[in-house]
Amino acid sequence: MKTKWLLVLFLLIASVFGACSKEQSSDGKIKVRVAEVTRSLFYAPEYVAISEGIFEKHGLDVELTTTFGGDKTMTAVLSNGADIGLVGPETTLYVYAQGANDPVKSFAQLTQTDGTFLVARNPKGTFNWEQLKGTTFLGQRKGGMPQMVGEYVLSNHGIEPHKDLKLIQNIDFANIANAFASGTGEYVQLFEPTASIFEKEGKGKIVASFGLESGKVPYTAFIAKESFLKKNAKTAQKFTDALYEAQAWVDSHSAEEIAQSVAPFFQDTPLDIATKVIDRYKSQNSYSTNPILEEDEWNNLQKIMKNSGELPKEVPHSTLVDTKFAEKSTKQ
Predict the structure, then answer these.
(1) Whether the bond into 264 is cis, omega within 30 of 0
(2) How many CB atoms lie within 10 A of CB 112?
(3) Which of 3, 102, 154, 221 shows a CA-CA span of 20 to 30 A to 267?
(4) In 16-165, which residue ranges form alpha helices assigned H by DSSP?
(5) Strands (DSSP E) along 142-260, which ranges?
(6) Strand order in the sheet with 187-191
(7) Which residue positions does the secretion signal occupy (predicted)?
(8) Which segments of 29-145 are extended strands (E)?
C-alpha cells in the first residue's frame, strides 16, 4: 500500500501538473476526461448523465476511462492523464499526508454507502456474523474503502479481522472475483453485478450488505486537483450541475428504467440482473440524491479509516472537500 502511494507522490513531484483551461471539441462542447476507479452499477448516475445526454446538455464532452484501482485513478489525476477522477475520498487523504502542494479535493459526491456485499460459498442456515470466525475471508485491497468498511463492519459484530479470520488482502481488485470463483475463500466481499451474477450461477449467496451495516459514508466522489478547480471553475460547475440532474433522474425513475438507460455500459450483464442490482442499491439509499459531501459524512469516513489503522492524520472537512459547486447546483 505504501509503495503505491509513494509512487503517486513521485508523480506529483516529478511531473508537470499545470492545470490548463479546458479545450473545446469541434462541436463547441468542453472536453472533460474522467477516470473511474471501476465499472459498476454502483455508479449508475454517472452513466445516466452520459446515456441521457445530460452532460451534453450542459455543454460537456465527457471521455470516460476505467482505471481499475484507487491508486491508478489518483495517478491519472495527478499526472494530468485525467481531469477528474471518480474514486473513494480516502485517496485524497493519502496524497495530502505525503505533502501535496496542489491537494486533490472531493467536489461532488456520487454514492453515500458502501457498495459491497458479503457472499458465502456454502451458506449454512440463517446467516449470522459469528459464522465467519475461523473461516477464510477474501477481502478487498488494503487501504481502500471496501477493505476499511469491511473491517469496520466486522469489528462492530465482534470479529477481529486479523485474528478471527484467515484474511486475504493481497489479490488485485480486478482479480478478486476470479479468485473466489476458482475456489479461494469461504466468504468474499464483492461489488455488484458480480455478487448477483455469482448468486445466479450458484457460485455463492449474498448473505449481508456492508452498505446497510456501515451507515452513511462518502464512499465515492468526483475529485480534482485544487488548481484544476480554480482554473476551470465554470467547467467544474457544469459537471456538478449535470451530475445533480442525473442524480435526480435516478431518484425519480424505476430500477428497470435506470437499467435500460445504463445498459450500453454493461453489455455482458443481463437486464434482469442489472435491474435487481440497481433496485438493491436504491432500496438501501446508496445513490446520493445530491452532490454535497457533508462534514458529518467526512468525519465518519475518517472514523472508519482510523478503525482500520489507515488514517495518516485527521484532516478538516474544509481542507480536502470543496462544496461550493455542489451547493450552487442544489440552489438553482
Answers:
(1) no
(2) 23
(3) 221
(4) 44-51, 54-57, 70-78, 90-97, 145-156, 161-164
(5) 166-168, 187-191, 205-209, 220-225
(6) 166-168, 136-138, 187-191, 116-120, 205-209
(7) 1-21
(8) 30-36, 60-66, 84-87, 104-111, 116-120, 136-138
Answer yes or no: pTM beyond 0.85. Answer: yes
- Domain hosting residue 40, numbered range: 2-10+22-113+217-331
Are residue 193 and residue 59 in the same domain, yes or no? no
Shared-domain flag, residues 95 and 145: no
Both 61 and 38 in one domain: the answer is yes
Q: Which of 159, 190, 214 is the last residue of a domain?
A: 214
CATH number (domain holding residue 229)? 3.40.190.10
Closest-CA residue to 230 (of 138, 108, 119, 107)? 107
Looking at the structure, tell me whether residues 70 and 146 fall in a common domain.
no
**Rounded Cα–Cα distance for residues 104 and 102 (Å):** 7
Q: pLDDT tens-digit profile of 131-188?
A: 999 999 999 888 888 899 999 999 999 999 999 999 999 888 889 999 999 999 999 9
In terms of DSSP bridges, do strands 60-66 and 166-168 run parallel, antiparallel, or are they unpaired? unpaired
Ramachandran angles phi, psi of 67, nearest 5°: -100, -20
- Same structural domain for residues 101 and 159? no
Cα(142)–Cα(195) distance, rounded to whole angstroms? 20
How is residue 204 written as a grid cell?
455463492
CA distance 55 to 245: 9
- What is the tens place of the pLDDT at every residue in 250-296? 999 999 999 999 999 999 999 999 999 999 999 999 999 999 999 99
